[in-house]
Design a protein that fits this description.
Layout lengths: L1 E6 L2 E4 L4 E9 L3 E10 L6 E7 L4 E3 L7 E6 L4 E6 L8 E10 L5 E5 L3 E6 L1
Parallel strand pairs: 2-11
Antiparallel strand pairs: 1-3, 3-8, 4-5, 4-9, 5-6, 7-8, 9-10, 9-11
Length: 120
């Protein structure tokens, strides 16, 4: 079992900043990727940002230049720094990770989600 625990969500005014954290723990032999997804009411879950253990990053076009994903592979922790927030960034943000567990099976785990609300 691999557990992901998120923190850092909240209410912020448009133009403000928030920093989300996600810590992975449990049966992790090799962690390949950690990602942030978000889901707004009535919409599909979408990928926001991804980071690999090699440090490669990818972002959704809607957040490029405003959000930054970073990680500490030694601590299996990833952060999402969100600047210049807009009301359309309002959503539940989920941490997701893929890798290999101690019995050398692939794992695919999700966090419980953290609410981000941006007021106009």
């Amino acid at each position: 079992q691999v557990q992901l625990v998120e923190s850092g969500g909240g209410l912020v005014q448009a133009g403000g900043s928030l920093r989300l954290s996600c810590a992975a723990s449990g049966s992790i032999f090799k962690l390949n990727t950690m990602e942030w997804y978000r889901q707004a009411p009535g919409k599909q879950r979408e990928l926001v940002a991804r980071i690999t253990t090699g440090g490669n990053t990818n972002y959704a076009d809607s957040v490029k230049g405003r959000f930054t994903i970073s990680g500490d592979s030694a601590k299996n922790t990833v952060w999402l720094q969100m600047n210049s927030l807009k009301p359309e960034d309002t959503a539940v943000y989920y941490c997701h990770s893929e890798g290999v567990n101690y019995v050398l099976r692939p794992y695919d785990s999700w966090g419980q989600g953290t609410q981000v609300t941006v007021s106009s």
